[in-house]
Amino acid sequence: MATLSASNPFFIRCIKPNMKKNPSVFDPEIVMNQLRYSGMLETVKIRRAGFPVRRTFKDFFSRYKIIQKVKVPTAGDDKKKSTDLLLKYDKTKKEWQLGKTKVFMKESLEQRLEKDRDEVRSQAAMIIRAHLLTFSAK
What we know:
Layout (H helix, E strand, L loop, with lengths): L1 H5 L21 H11 L1 H10 L3 E4 H8 L13 H12 L6 E3 L3 E4 L1 H31 L1
Antiparallel strand pairs: 1-3, 2-3
Helix pairs in contact: 4-5
């Protein structure tokens, strides 16, 4: 459940753990057949080999601009700003590619970006909390 909550699923497939639908009974052969026939195994292989995370330039930059050390003007080319941010994380360009309208990233790069974003947000929240406590104490 933690993995599902952390991801951004586009769809959810229901898999029967057994043919009798009994709770806490798992038949691996039946589950594998369902996954194979639904095409999920091939989908997982393709997504692992490729770039499963896709965001438009505007969405990408608006989400991750807070992790930049230098304040970047909001006006301008979102593609260029996104490229500059991505180059700071992966200069080799092995974990990301640019399309016409979207940024394509590997899961590992997105996880690093999200981790840094969460850290920046936590630090900002602590500063705000400290100011509020100071204000309320005065």
